[in-house]
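FW: tagging you since you asked about this chain on Friday. Here's the raw sequence from the shared folder, copied in full. Didn't touch anything.
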Amino acid sequence: MSCSNLTAGLLDGCNDIAGGVEKLFIANGPVEAITASAGVVTAITVGGSALVPADFFVFELPRQTASFTEGITVSQENGTVVYNQDLTVIFNRLEAEKRNQIALMAQATSMVVVIKTNDGKYLSVGLEKGAFLGSATATTGTAYADRAGYELTISGIELTPSYEVTSTIVE
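HL: got it, structure written out here
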């Protein structure tokens, strides 16, 4: 059996990007199908219908507080590759509405999650196997200038890397 071979090198590019996550979009899953080409998703099907922007709940995030990390775990012994995706987000203020939505996230096992990066890219989290709330913390802080709010980690464990998502699916 032949394994994959590299098909191209990678260029460094210009210094014109910005890190971090600007917005979070979540729809109820599970995903039944995706339409993708060359790593870019152009349609997501849930419940027999393609998702549209109205299907997503938009979560606005405070500037410079959210990040997305994707780790790749390769097991030569088992012949496996797994992509561990973690999105860390902050919500300021301890409020009942936020508490209630976080409680619902904690029960969900296959959310459809798309992020918009500060660079204007849209990326998936747990798209094929379902995203889930991995952990959450509520804190009052100590000093007057400390955060009183929530920190959440939304995770995905995938067999393929995160997809770039066409913006028209969520916005």
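FW: The first helix runs from residue 96 to 107.
HL: agreed, and The first strand starts at residue 21 and ends at 27.
FW: great, closing this out.
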